[in-house]
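Revision sheet: structure tokens.
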Amino acid sequence: MRARELGGAALLGHVEALLAAARRGARARGGAVRVVVNRRVDVCLAAGAEGVHLGFDAVPPPVARRLLGPAAWIGVSAHAPGELPGLAGGEATYAHLAPIFAPLSKPQERPLLGLDALREACAGPLPVLAQGGVRAESAGACLAAGAAGVAVTGEILLARDPAAATRALRAALDAAMRREPPPRRASRPS
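Predicted:
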């Protein structure tokens, strides 16, 4: 859950509503869901979310781990494969690597990394999610490069039909997973 413009109380209300809806949906389909809160360890704790995604302006992963406990999902952001070894010290569950492609939802602020950098990042022990400009047409290539998954914003939120865009992305990921071995799973929580 990412809504940087919201203050603590408003964000907590949104996270609680999202958790309730996500958990209802998961129960209805006989599955499970994890909700991760962007940057706000306090909101994650208060809402009972499954984890937090830490940017460069958030608490360090060891502090988040101490506060959230061993079962929490802790994500970290990276903008180059060389940043991942320092983040893979056992406290993080996964990393977002961005931008792989030109972002769809915001102006490009950093050099594009491409699939070769994604492949390099995925060679380490930390599961990596490809982020930045990922579309249904490129999602399979991200998994083939070793990504454990993808993180998208613009592909869905900017689509004329977000539901159709979500289905297309899910279908592309499912097709890629049938062609390749399943992506590495995070070693922390199950």
